[in-house]
Design goal:
The chain has 382 residues and is α+β, with helices and mostly antiparallel strands. It contains eleven helices and twelve strands. The protein folds into two domains: 3-195 and 376-380, Ribosomal Protein S5, domain 2; 199-372, GHMP kinase, C-terminal domain (Alpha-Beta Plaits, 2-Layer Sandwich). Strand 9 and strand 10 form a beta hairpin.
């Protein structure tokens, strides 16, 4: 059964009636630009076909009822009971009601049925997809007229202030604003966006996603520690954010920082911002060799300077490059998750087999793989 039909059926089981409509919001792949978003920098994600699906209908009271198809669970609460820092899968949905009401939007209760095929904890923004699909639904159900970027901001506020994960805006912006066949260049300070064509198939190339099945959580201490390091480094360097540190003379500038750890953190962010700009130029000039080089350099920076990779993702990158990939890098917040491999379409099966063999030989479970295709952002299905 497709997910749209699954949520429709779950909604009928919950309420005894058809939903007002069904919405979809995708997960995302970050092609390049990791941990730059909360440093006011640049990112280049694209939306995935994998998505969260939500059947929803208005209520005339303040009750919120949620059915999770994937978990086979239900949750109930009221608008009056909403409060930040609540645990559980339902917090990503309940928090959206809270964020909208805190922003002054007149939102009442709703019945919801949710299903998603975005892998959880894989660095593909499963949580942002859930937040964004509900923002879309409530915006339509209550005729709020919220602009797309503002919808993304409200979804991020759910993640930051209600769930308690200090993420930037990239995930929610990608889920909301991406268009099919394009990557989304986002300036996280000005919020300027550009749709950058991403037609790898026209050049015989593709992006293979290798899900290492090593799971992580953005709400853990490591993510918050990296963000605090960046804020400390920018303060010591006398700039509003690390985005404001120029590449020219970078080593000399960073030498003034009192701790080597801060030097490494800042160097990753500044060089990663430049890699995003260079990747946009490479895509626009169809220079996929250069794109692959930038991806591989990004992984090395995350591994050595930002220290957010772990053995399984490093192994996947190493084996992919040894078997003919044009470039490879971890994507997502780190400490596990997925690796992106840019390669000729004819080599994808061999690459996947080589990585799988290396994982099994090292005593790991075989990874999951799929080809990433740039899809459309959030919207109403029916």
């Amino acid at each position: 059964m497709t997910l749209d039909l699954a949520v429709h059926e779950a909604y009928r089981n919950l309420t005894g009636r058809d939903p007002d409509s069904i919405w979809r919001a995708p997960g995302r792949i970050n092609l390049i630009g990791e941990h730059t978003d909360y440093n006011d920098g640049f990112v280049l994600p694209f939306a995935l076909p994998q998505a969260a699906y939500l059947a929803a209908g208005r209520r005339e009271d303040d009750m919120i009822r949620i059915a999770s198809v994937d978990l086979g669970e239900q949750f109930e609460t009221t608008l009056a009971e909403l409060a930040p820092n609540q645990d559980g899968w339902h917090s990503y949905l309940a928090g959206v009601f809270w964020a909208l009401r805190e922003a002054g939007h007149q939102v009442g209760g709703a019945d919801l049925a949710l299903a998603s095929d975005v892998p959880i904890g894989a660095g593909l923004s499963s949580s942002a997809a859930i937040e964004c699909v509900l923002v879309e639904a409530l915006n339509d159900l209550y005729e709020l007229g919220i602009a797309p970027m503002d919808r993304a901001k409200l979804a991020r506020r759910t993640e930051n202030a209600y769930v308690g994960a200090p993420t930037g805006l990239m995930d929610q912006a990608a889920s909301t604003l991406c268009t099919e066949g394009h990557a989304l260049f986002l300036d996280c300070r000005s919020l300027e966006v550009q749709q950058v064509p991403l037609d790898l198939a026209a050049h015989g190339q593709a992006i293979l996603v290798i899900d290492t099945l090593t799971r992580h959580s953005h709400a853990d201490g490591e993510y918050a520690t990296r963000r605090a390091d960046c804020e400390r480094a920018s303060e010591l360097l006398g700039v509003p954010a690390l985005r404001d540190v120029a590449m020219e003379g970078l080593d000399d500038r960073l030498a003034g920082l009192p701790e080597e750890r801060l030097v490494r953190r800042a160097r990753h962010v500044v060089t990663e911002d430049q890699r995003v700009l260079d990747a946009c130029a490479a895509l626009r000039s169809d220079d996929l060799v250069r794109l692959g080089e930038l991806m591989t350099a990004s992984h090395a920076s995350m591994r050595d300077d930002y220290e957010i990779t772990e053995p399984s993702v490093d192994l996947a990158v190493e084996v992919a490059l040894a078997n003919g990939a044009s470039g490879a890098r971890m994507t997502g917040g780190g400490f596990g998750g997925c690796v992106l491999v840019l390669a000729d379409q004819t080599r994808l099966d061999a690459l996947a087999a080589a990585v799988t063999a290396a994982f099994v030989e090292s005593g790991r479970s075989a990874p999951a793989t799929f080809i990433a295709l740039p899809a459309a952002g959030a919207g109403r299905l029916i």
